UniProtKB/TrEMBL annotation:
The keyword Signal applies. GO terms for cellular component: endoplasmic reticulum. Belongs to the AGR family. It comes from Mionectes macconnelli (McConnell's flycatcher). Keywords: Signal. The keyword Amino-acid biosynthesis does not apply. It holds the Pfam family Thioredoxin_7. Residues 1-23 form the signal peptide. InterPro entries: AGR/TXD, Thioredoxin-like_sf. The gene is Agr3. This is AGR3 protein. It comes from the Eukaryota. GO terms for molecular function: dystroglycan binding.
Length: 166
């Protein structure tokens, strides 16, 4: 095909441009897979290291959720977490968010063991907040679906700490 006519050339340009636009759109939707069901509107970081970097850069606390696919407690918590508008809104706007299905090398993230689900907060000074705990003395950082209001309080506490301490 000869591309001498302006029409043929502009059609080619349109085809290339729309393919590019679709590729860019796909790129934008990448966080969906990182959400793993915890909230598709949230922008999730991929690694703990990226989370620390973003927390420091944005001056937002990092929320780390450890979970496993085949854990019924994780599934139940995930459902409650994803369905709670207040949590989703705070996670979207005020936190750097990470959910992990493997352990990190940072031992500070498992001060009382490597159980799931567990949710921990890291402040922008990159300090793991061992003082923000759940309701259970045997597994300090675990939450159950009925603990969602308590988790909301802890999220607010993590945000307050930044204002008062850092």
């Amino acid at each position: 095909i000869m591309l001498h006519s302006p029409l043929a050339l502009s059609l080619l340009l349109i085809a290339v441009t729309s393919n590019l636009a679709m590729a860019i759109k796909k790129e934008k939707r990448a966080p969906q897979t990182l959400s793993r069901g915890w909230g598709d509107e949230i922008t999730w970081v991929q690694t703990y290291e990226e989370g620390l970097y973003q927390a420091k850069k944005s001056n937002k606390p990092l929320m780390v959720i450890h979970h496993l696919e085949d854990c019924q407690y994780c599934q139940a918590l995930k459902k409650a977490f994803a369905e709670n508008e207040e949590i989703q809104e705070m996670a979207q706007n005020n936190f750097v968010m990470l959910n992990l299905m493997h352990e990190t090398t940072d031992k500070n993230l498992s001060p009382d063991g490597q159980y799931v689900p567990r949710i921990m907060f890291v402040d922008p000074s990159l300090t793991v907040r061992a003082d923000i705990t759940g309701r259970y003395s045997n597994r300090l950082y675990t939450y159950e679906p009925q603990d969602i209001p308590f988790l909301i309080e802890n999220m607010k506490k993590a945000l307050r700490l930044i204002q008062t301490e850092l």
